[in-house]
Amino acid sequence: MGALRRRGAYVRQSKLTLTAGYAALLLISALFIIPFVWLLRSSLMDLSQIFTMPPEWIPTPFHWDNFHRALTILPFGTFFTNTLIIVVSVIVGTVVTSSIAAFGFSRIPWKGRDTVFGILMSSMMLPAAVTLIPSFLGWQMLGFYDTYYPLIVPAYFGGGIFNIFLLRQFYLTIPRDFDEAAFVDGATYLQIYMRIIMPLSRSAIIVVALFSFLGSWNDFMGPLIYLKSDSLFTLALGLQMFQGSYTAQWDLLMAASAAVVLPCVIVFLIGQRYFLEGITLTGLKG
Q1: What is the pLDDT averaged over residues 264-271?
Q2: DSSP assignment string, 83-145
Q3: Pfam families annotated for this entry (predicted)?
Q4: What's the CATH number where 151 sits?
Q5: Are residues 151 and 222 in contact, defined by beta-carbon separation less than 8 angstroms?
Q6: For residue 61, what pLDDT is reported?
Q7: How far apart are CA 145 and CA 222, in angstroms?
Q8: Distance CA 155, CA 209 (A)
Q9: What are phi and psi of 248, to 5 degrees?
Q10: Does residue 284 register a pLDDT over 50?
């Protein structure tokens, strides 16, 4: 009887802990979802309804025309094309160069490899603000100010140490028996990279592509610093144009913001399975 009572108490304690955990997760989730819900409801409201107190969570009536007005009052078609050019170029450069660099740091033995990788990892502790002005001056001296080169070219030189780190950790989980068998058959490092490592690293590659997409699509600081011409503006800079010095068209800004955020949500929902798988596997081996 004593054992049964202890078991019953343990089961009740487990259920209580599980319930408390789910309640905490729901609360935290609500903190992240509420701003998105506010964005959606504001995008369907008239300007006079957005800041009424107490807040109205359901628009009455629904102003669907906000989206049409927001996307036509400014050249968002041009902004979308500009953003797409940058995003596609950055994704290609990041995936190709970071995967090659990670292959060199994980599968090819060479003297000082781990030391060099450690030095590169230490660069992650360097705040971006420290290199902001030197980078701007360098690109300006090269004559690339007001062009897309400062936003695209860095992706073709390693793709960022964080992406290299993710792929390197994933490559380390792939058995080296594959490499040895390929060497026996006369394969080179390039053939191993192309025919063995890349096909087996699909989930990790998708994670890097997702990070690159989200980073480039939502990048505001880079275009703000390096772009001057309105014809080169990205979506992030286009949203800023709804805010003037003294007033802001909040209804149109919220509608345009919802339209800009939608591709990010769709891409994440499509790739979330690979995202979770890639993030999980990259931490299995150091």
Answers
A1: 82
A2: HHHHHHHHHHHHHHHHHHHHHHHHTS--TTHHHHHHHHHHGGGS-HHHHHHHHHHHHHHTT-T
A3: BPD_transp_1 (PF00528)
A4: 1.10.3720.10
A5: yes
A6: 81
A7: 11
A8: 12
A9: -145, 140
A10: no
pLDDT tens, position by position, 96-123: 999 999 999 988 888 988 899 888 888 8
The pLDDT of 224-244, averaged and rounded, is: 85
How far is residue 70's CA from residue 61's CA, in Å, rounded to a whole number? 18
Residue 26 is part of which domain span? 2-43
Q: Per the omega criterion (within 30 degrees of 0), is the bond before 199 cis? A: no
Structural domains in the chain (count): 2
CA end-to-end span of the chain: 49
Q: Is residue 131 part of a domain?
A: yes
One domain, residues 37 and 152: no
Return the closest-CA partner of residue 165 out of 207, 210, 112: 207
**Three-state SS at 243:** strand
Tokens linked to 210: 């997702």
* 121-177 per-position pLDDT tens digit: 888 888 878 888 888 999 999 989 989 999 999 999 988 888 999 899 888 888 888
In angstroms, the CA 58 to CA 44 distance is 9
